[in-house]
Amino acid sequence: MSGEQRSLIRGLGGYLPERILTNADLAQMVDTTDSWIVERTGIRERHIAADGETTSTLAIRAAERALAAAGMRADEIELIVLATATPDQTFPATAARVQAALGTASGGAAFDVQAVCSGFLFATGVADNFLARGQFRSALVIGAETFSRILDWTDRTTCVLFGDGAGAMVLTAEDPKSAGDRGIMGVELHTDGSKHDLLFVDGGPSSTKTVGHLRMQGNQVFKHAVVNLSNSIESVARRHGVPLSEVDWFIPHQANQRILEAVARRIGIDEKKVISTLAHHANTSAASIPLAFAEAVDDGRIRPGDLALMEAMGGGFSWGAALARV
Ligand code: ACO
């Protein structure tokens, strides 16, 4: 291959565990109510992985669906980049398990990236660069999480917000002449490590030798999320000469309906163009963007040729945005 290649989105797939935990169920576990959760977050229910289901098993199901949507076989995939903050094990990478289960192309590579709720964008950026350079010709980009395993189920300020799930996207490298204007146009990524303590897990192999639980200063995260997401959306659109009014769909990381609405108001986005799965998925961290993307493609909202803008913010703080013509 010669010259820079373009990463084309060939197919998407999502997978949610069967078990549903409703707000009413949570009200039996901690001092909360359905109305508090709905009013403050938009969340009504979330899916929870069964015993024996892990991040890799969810990822495998989502990847199989993305491959089917792309009309491709697993052995045609050369690269797997899997975003997760809840790996099956400290090592090897969860992506290695997914690779073994799917049977992707021999001689390829599979690894994890960790940027918490922004992980899918970071994984997309990594895969896009490898494809653009011609180092691999095809990639599975996966966001998969089992946040239920790192929640403190006695802490009402965090346990009501998250759910489990996985989403996957197949990318292939195409000659820009044949790709036309389709494909990933750009990915913008940022990290501000000084905000590390506002959203973190209080354990880890090197610090406590434990897995730990998620801790968060929710209102601080909220404020930074609205500003950082708004700036990223405007910046990636400006960089590629696209007026926000020309974006067909905004596919945000699903943290809180109030964050989605505040961002839309701040930068003048039509809320009808914002894909929201919060009510039924809650916050599935790195899985939330590909899950929302897959759902909106499956139900016919997002169609080939549409301009989509993905955006996310999470622990680190990490955040970013990506622009793609589907
Ligand atoms: N049920 C009932 N009451 C609750 C609950 C609950 N589940 N959780 C908190 N409260 C109480 C608090 O104790 C507090 O009570 P007090 O006034 O007596 O002290 C009151 O509700 C208000 O608490 P706040 O934290 O100020 O509530 P806020 O309006 O900020 O909403 C929330 C909290 C939903 C966490 C919000 O701050 C938020 O969504 N922040 C973003 C965090 C986020 O989404 N993080 C995910 C990872 S990062 C990302 O994805 C962007």
- Can you count the beta strands? 13
**Regions with pLDDT < 50 over 5+ consecutive residues?**
none
Proper CATH architecture of the largest domain: 3-Layer(aba) Sandwich
| Form type | globular
Q: C-alpha Rg, in Å?
A: 18 Å
Based on secondary structure, the structural category is alpha/beta
- List the secondary-structure elements in sequence, H or E: EEHHEHEHEHEHEHEEEHEHHHEE
Structure description:
There is one protein chain. The protein is α/β, with parallel strands linked by helices and about 325 residues long. The protein has eleven helices and 13 strands. The strands form four sheets. It has a five-stranded mixed β-sheet with strand order 1-7-6-4-5, sandwiched between helices. It has a four-stranded mixed β-sheet with strand order 8-13-12-11, sandwiched between helices. A hairpin with a 3-residue loop joins β12 and β13. The protein is globular and about 60 Å long. Acetyl coenzyme *A binds next to α2, α6, α8 and β12.
List keywords for this structure.
326 residues; alpha/beta; Peroxisomal Thiolase, Chain A, domain 1; four-stranded mixed beta sheet; binds acetyl coenzyme *A
